[in-house]
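Ticket closed. Logging final result for Anion-transporting ArsA/GET3 family ATPase.
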Amino acid sequence: MKARDTDWDGVRLHVVTGKGGTGKTTVAAALALALAAGGRKVLLVEVEGRQGVAQVFDLPPLPYEERKIAVAPGGGDVYALAVDPEEAMLEYLEMFYGMRRAGKALTKMGVVDFATTIAPGFRDVLVTGKTSEAVRRKGKDGRRVYDAVVLDAPPTGRITRFLNVTNEVAGLARVGPIKNHADLVNGVVSSPETAVHFVTLLEEMPVQETLDGLQELREAGLPPGGIFTNMVRESRLPASVLDAAAEDRFDPSELILGLKVAGLTDGGPAAVSVAEALTEEIAEHARRGELERRERATLNTSGRPRYELPLLADGVDLSGLYELAESIRTQGAA
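Final structure:
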């Protein structure tokens, strides 16, 4: 299928990270739907064991197997995989050593947990290795099985270490299958076929973590992607009102008159009390808007493509995911 003209032409692995609470999994799911639209096949992978993808799509917990979970607009398919490190270890042992039975015994003995405890980077190699294999996999016809893979990755603070698997296992194995496997993974995640996207909110801490994460990626030689600003709220008040409220120039008498004209109060003491409360709400709304403008300006210093996704009034459900996916497509991110 001919690739669409998007900001990420040629990218086949979309890694999605973000500070906790920013809606990282929701954005990853919406991005997978957007990429699959028009008849494409996309795999959505999660690696943290939270079953977040199942929750977002309102599904039972996902097993360690690739299964179809949604149909994208235009007939595309979204598959999902919840990577389990122990199962990935068994696959690894079978692939490189023909030791799946022995691997099951080792799992029962707790050796897998022991190995990944003394060498935490090895666990990341296992889960990123499964994702990289899906990116490279070809069918009998020689074509890629998936048009794109979306990885719901660990939070911003861990993302560089999680992806920089070659360095993480350098002290564990300098030669042999583990080293070769890590090099194969690194060949995918550090290539132009990969983009690491950040999810943020228009708040100081997630914005700063996003900028710090981008800098760490550059220093590690990993490919930065775009910035998805989630839960953006549109102001329904005129700019003149917001400016007046931010500068304490807003006149509550206008509210008192408006409440009386609307028949909500008689213009007496009750109207004054309601107007004062509304005036404080308007001032807080104006202050929030000013904060968001500053954070937008800060994000613009990153030089990365930016996309804004709306706050879903009814919360995140399946219809909300399709709404976000359409927004992502409209903005050229998929």
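The longest helix spans residues 269-300. No further action required.
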